């Protein structure tokens, strides 16, 4: 099977087979990590530019490492010190970067659709590293990789996504991926943070943590942000923790071999207790490792589609 | 002044209940005779075989941006865009820089329109000083100098007490308040309609209640004060239901809808992959809302079709979705889009469309226009229903090109526009 996309903008536009293809390729790349020389020449002579309009440590570093392990040249374009501060528009900035010979632009931007708009204007491959509260496709892919690695299947797997779904690009990309792969999704959180209309996709919506994670095979926890409290979307972090904080005790209703996932950065003691974050069910650190392999697979497959 | 005979056209004149093949004879800028086989000598004869001959269209809601944003539009360019769109009269909103809230401002618009305009321009003045929603303007003086209505359009009057006083005071002149209904607390930060599409795209939604809560409030205030409220660009089903109820109770309320709300939905944002020309207030709503708007047009709950022509330059619109300004242009696309999407498929009758764009706004604003009655000013629009073409930014007379309809295949076009007996636009060419 051939990967036909030049850009990775979101999971919504990928087919089940394309998602599986990325995951299969990632297995091969992960194997490289165990070698003494953790590098392959796949993208030698190619240039990857990381263009981050929002703060990020793990995603940017992960993309940088992925590109370097594929022997690409990597430029980190720092928005805070660039001409963006002088008022340059996104489109002009992207064209400037492209004129310097970028083959890939990996972008994080606070506006939904920003990479979609750019992809229509430039020749380089766009990789969406998070567009506002819309999508974060590589996070979903690394989550799928981690689930597949541990559970070996998706069909009828019970996955609960808990937290601020409304503002989560991770949740949106995960929902598309899990739906396409055949898992059963429950979104858990307060009514103000879980949009009802996700129900239109056949996703179950639950406002009670105990019910929502009952018999779950996977629980994906999302970071809860204090700024949402200031918008009156929930009364207090204290109340959020009381209603939705995942602790060892509350985890009892889930399957015995439940996976605890979190895209990070985590708020210890808020959405996840210390014991759960570091406990035997947690695969949070493996997610980070898998992220590099998945991003290598993405860059590799996109370069194939772009050159053909 | 010359005389003109328009022969063999299909006259549609809702004010006079005419819908048949007739000739129209114009002399000295006045309609002198409408009838079968008019035998008059004319300086000029226009063969209108295969064309609709309708009263000059009236757009009661347009932003021509002058003074202040002449880079986006001017009275010169905006009135030409109007003529190309078949509009012989445009009512211009006062949210310019400076705001039209004084005698001086009204005089500026009137003078500028006389000098540079090619169609009739009617100024709308602001309800409150500098559109701040805090102090009401000198309504009496503004009317004396030519203001035909009042509006803080682009912003609501959030303070209910101010709205009460504005309605109470303007009622003695029997002049309508053109009401932009948007609860700013509910709409804050919103980009598109709140619903499935906003959920999927992760763009902050504007709930329909942001519009309907103020529609409801102002219906109550209209009843209480006896003032006249005209709801601008109504876009949602809950608002329609409130207006319908108010009309049943004989409250003095009227409403308008835009061609884009009648033909597009929030799904357009997704299908166009975040095209910023779909970013508009009120936002494009759901299919359910759209159907409700069409039904309201058919039932008479909605009185007027108005464009809310809102030009923005490419520089402003060529941005990511959250940073682009709200608004889209509509003067030059209204007729072909309405014909293609609503009239041609048989959803609304052609005569109804014309009524909502001629006599209906004229009655609300008490303009002596919108008919082909003998003795009326000869503002006439010729429409060709058969022409197939593709809407293109290159053909716009507007200074801006922020239209979500660019690239749309349409059937039907404005053929010619006559203002005061003078043919000013014909088949793509401006004659003045």
Please give a structural write-up:
The complex is a heterodimer of chains A (308) and B (432). Chain A is α/β, with parallel strands linked by helices and 308 residues long. Helix content of chain A is 39%, strand content 15%. Chain A is built from eleven helices and nine strands. Chain A has helices at 16-32, 58-69, 90-99, 114-119, 137-151, 169-181, 209-212, 226-230, 237-244, 274-278, 284-307, and strands at 47-52, 73-78, 104-109, 125-131, 158-162, 184-188, 204-206, 218-221, 259-261. Chain A has a five-stranded parallel β-sheet. In chain A, β5, α6 and β6 (184-188) form a beta-alpha-beta unit. Chain A is globular, with a radius of gyration of 19 Å. With 432 residues, chain B is an alpha/beta fold. Helices cover 31% and strands 22% of the residues of chain B. Chain B is globular, with a radius of gyration of 21 Å. The A-B interface holds A 12, 89-91, 109-114, 116-117, 120, 131-135, 169, 172, 195, 197-198, 200 and B 195-196, 199-203, 273-274, 318-323.
Sequence-ordered SSE layout with sheet pairings:
The complex is a heterodimer of chains A (308) and B (432).
Chain A: H1 16-32, E1 47-52, H2 58-69, E2 73-78, H3 90-99, E3 104-109, H4 114-119, E4 125-131, H5 137-151, E5 158-162, H6 169-181, E6 184-188, E7 204-206, H7 209-212, E8 218-221, H8 226-230, H9 237-244, E9 259-261, H10 274-278, H11 284-307
Parallel strand pairs in A: 1-2, 1-3, 3-4, 5-6, 5-8, 6-7, 8-9
Helix pairs in contact in A: 1-5, 1-11, 2-11, 5-6, 5-11
Chain B: E1 3-13, E2 18-27, E3 30-35, E4 44-47, E5 52-55, E6 57-62, H1 75-84, E7 87-92, H2 103-116, E8 120-123, H3 139-144, H4 160-170, E9 177-179, H5 184-187, E10 192-193, H6 196-201, E11 205-206, H7 209-225, E12 229-231, H8 237-248, E13 253-257, H9 259-263, H10 267-271, H11 287-299, E14 304-305, H12 314-317, H13 334-343, H14 350-357, H15 359-365, E15 380-390, E16 409-419, E17 422-426, E18 429-430
Parallel strand pairs in B: 1-4, 1-5, 6-7, 7-8, 9-12, 10-11, 12-13, 13-14
Antiparallel strand pairs in B: 1-2, 2-3, 5-15, 15-16, 16-17, 17-18
Helix pairs in contact in B: 4-7, 7-8, 8-11
């Amino acid at each position: 099977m051939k990967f036909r996309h030049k850009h990775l903008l979101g999971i919504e536009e990928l087919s089940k087979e394309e998602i599986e293809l990325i995951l299969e390729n990632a297995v091969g790349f992960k194997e490289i990590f165990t070698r003494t020389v953790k590098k392959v020449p796949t993208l030698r002579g190619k240039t990857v530019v990381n263009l981050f309009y929002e703060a990020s440590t793990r995603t940017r570093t992960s993309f940088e490492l992925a590109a370097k392990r594929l022997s690409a040249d990597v430029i980190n374009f720092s928005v805070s010190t660039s001409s963006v501060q002088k008022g340059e528009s996104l489109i002009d900035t992207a064209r400037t970067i492209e004129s310097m010979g970028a083959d890939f632009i990996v972008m994080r931007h606070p506006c939904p659709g920003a990479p979609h708009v750019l992809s229509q204007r430039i020749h380089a491959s766009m990789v969406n590293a998070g567009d506002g509260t819309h999508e974060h496709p590589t996070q979903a892919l690394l989550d799928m990789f981690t689930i597949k690695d541990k559970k070996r299947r998706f069909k009828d797997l019970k996955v609960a996504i808990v937290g601020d779904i409304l503002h989560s690009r991770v949740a949106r990309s995960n929902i598309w991926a899990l739906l396409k792969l055949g898992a059963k999704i429950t979104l858990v959180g307060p009514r103000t943070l879980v949009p009802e209309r996700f129900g239109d996709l056949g996703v179950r919506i639950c406002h009670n943590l105990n019910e929502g994670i009952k018999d779950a095979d996977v629980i994906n926890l999302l970071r809860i942000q204090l700024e949402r409290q200031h918008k009156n979307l929930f009364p207090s972090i204290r109340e959020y923790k009381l209603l939705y904080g995942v602790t060892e005790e509350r985890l009892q209703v889930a399957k015995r071999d439940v996976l605890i996932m979190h895209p990070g950065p985590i708020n210890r003691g808020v959405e996840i207790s210390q014991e759960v974050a570091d406990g035997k069910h947690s695969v949070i650190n493996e997610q980070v490792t898998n992220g590099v392999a998945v991003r290598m697979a993405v860059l590799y497959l996109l370069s194939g589609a772009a050159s053909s | 002044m010359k005389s003109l005979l328009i022969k063999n056209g299909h006259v549609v004149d809702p004010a006079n209940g005419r819908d048949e093949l007739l000739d129209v004879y114009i002399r000295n800028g006045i309609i002198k005779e409408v009838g079968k086989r008019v035998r008059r000598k004319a300086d000029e004869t226009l063969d209108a075989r295969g064309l609709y001959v309708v009263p000059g269209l009236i757009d009661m809601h347009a932003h021509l941006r002058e003074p202040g944003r002449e880079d986006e539009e001017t009275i010169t360019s905006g009135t030409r865009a109007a003529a190309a769109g078949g509009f012989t009269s445009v009512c211009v909103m006062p949210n310019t820089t400076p705001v039209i809230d004084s005698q001086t401002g009204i005089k500026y618009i009137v003078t500028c329109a006389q000098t540079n305009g090619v169609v009739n321009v009617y100024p709308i003045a602001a309800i409150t000083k500098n559109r701040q929603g805090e102090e009401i303007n000198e309504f009496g003086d503004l009317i004396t100098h030519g203001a035909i209505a009042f509006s803080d359009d682009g912003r609501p009057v959030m303070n209910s007490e101010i709205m009460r006083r504005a309605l109470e005071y303007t009622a003695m002149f029997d002049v309508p308040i053109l009401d932009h209904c948007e609860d700013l607390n509910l709409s804050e930060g919103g980009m598109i309609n709140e619903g499935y599409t906003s959920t999927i795209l992760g763009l902050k939604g504007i709930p329909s209640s942001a519009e309907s809560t103020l529609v409801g409030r102002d219906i109550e205030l209209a009843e209480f004060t006896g003032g006249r409220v005209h709801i601008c660009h109504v876009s949602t089903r809950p608002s329609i239901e409130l207006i319908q109820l108010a009309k049943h109770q004989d409250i003095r309320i009227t409403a308008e809808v835009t061609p884009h709300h009648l033909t597009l939905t929030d799904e357009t944002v997704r299908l166009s992959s975040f095209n910023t020309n779909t970013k508009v207030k009120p936002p494009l709503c759901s299919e359910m809302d759209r159907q409700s708007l069409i039904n309201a047009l058919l039932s008479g709950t909605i009185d007027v079709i108005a464009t809310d022509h809102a030009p923005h330059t490419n520089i402003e619109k060529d941005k990511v979705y959250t940073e682009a300004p709200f608004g889209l242009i509509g003067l030059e696309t209204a007729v072909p889009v309405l014909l293609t999407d609503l009239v041609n498929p048989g959803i609304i009758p052609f005569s109804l469309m014309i009524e909502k764009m001629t006599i209906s706004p004229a009655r609300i604003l008490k303009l002596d226009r919108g008919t082909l009655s003998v003795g009326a000013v000869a503002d006439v629009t010729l429409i060709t229903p058969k022409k197939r073409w593709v809407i293109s930014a290159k053909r716009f007379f507007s200074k801006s090109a922020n239209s979500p309809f660019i690239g749309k295949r349409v059937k039907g076009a404005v053929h010619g526009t006559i203002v005061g007996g003078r043919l000013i636009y014909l088949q793509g060419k401006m004659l003045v």
